[in-house]
Amino acid sequence: MTILIGVLGLAVIYIFQRDLFYSGFSDAGASTVKVPDFDATRFIWHKFTRLLLNDTFSLFIIFGIFLRKDFIQFGFKLLLIEVFIILPIYLSLSIYMYEYTRFFLQHIHRLIVNPVLMMLLIPAFFYQQHKETQ
Question: Where do the structural domains in the chain lie, given as residue ranges?
Fold first, then answer.
């Protein structure tokens, strides 16, 4: 059941991302040199919310697959790293240094709006579980 909640949650976020979350840079691609006009407060809040929701639903999937508290604790620690280290770096670069970091931001953006790091934990946890049973 927790896997279903996680998958459905991620699907809803993905399907309705344009309606639910403010991008701020929707019309600005990597070729845009100047910072587009956008609402910074709204941008920050929506990136934070999306990161939190994506990672929470990913933790549901991880728990549903492995049923291990230690894996959830590790995933939660990764979530904290994303929220307190990666997200502030991304937001600072996006808001204050967009002109100089726009190409780099495209790659960090994927970590913020998609649960990439959390999903990478699944094969790592399978490997960890396999090593423990040998």
Answer: 2-22+41-133
